[in-house]
Design a protein that fits this description.
mainly beta; three-stranded antiparallel sheet; single chain; five-stranded antiparallel sheet; 1 helix; disordered N terminus; 147 residues
């Protein structure tokens, strides 16, 4: 199990983000602020700080991830840093793992965490914009994005 988590972290580190046990820069909005504003030039400016809580489901409802994340605008005003944490639930013990996937500007969906039923996870991220999360089962059945 921990080997899979390390492999996911290595895969994440191979991307364009700076990561400390997780990913980089947040995305959803729960505090009433949009996570980023896009200018007429297509630039993304980070919009302050905030936090979000979501329940992510796989498309067949066999897996569930409760996730919380927070974000703060980086000094450059274009990216974010923050933390994420939560818990995995497997409602159909079928031998398939529930996966937490993330994507951010410049990176497609990437598996960043996997764990057993009831297991907790956490991580930090920096220098990202457009961060989003979803739940998948090993082999498919990815659910809707958090935002």
């Amino acid at each position: 199990m921990k080997i899979r988590m390390k492999a996911a972290a290595i895969a994440l580190l191979a991307g364009t983000a700076t990561v400390a046990g997780g990913i980089t820069a947040p995305a959803a909005f729960a505090s009433g602020e949009a996570p980023a504003a896009v200018s007429d030039r297509g630039d993304i400016r980070a919009a302050g700080s905030g936090s979000a809580d979501r329940t992510l489901w796989t498309s067949n409802r066999a897996g569930q991830i409760n996730i919380h994340w927070d974000w703060k605008s980086s000094a450059d005003g274009r990216t974010y840093y923050g933390s994420f944490w939560g818990k995995f639930y497997d409602h159909k013990l079928d031998g398939k793992y529930v996966l937490l996937q993330a994507k951010w500007k410049g990176q497609g969906w990437t598996t960043i965490r996997t764990a057993a039923n009831g297991e907790n996870f956490s991580g930090d991220y920096s220098k990202l914009s457009g961060l989003n999360f979803r739940a998948c089962l090993q082999g498919g059945n990815c659910g809707a994005a958090a935002w």
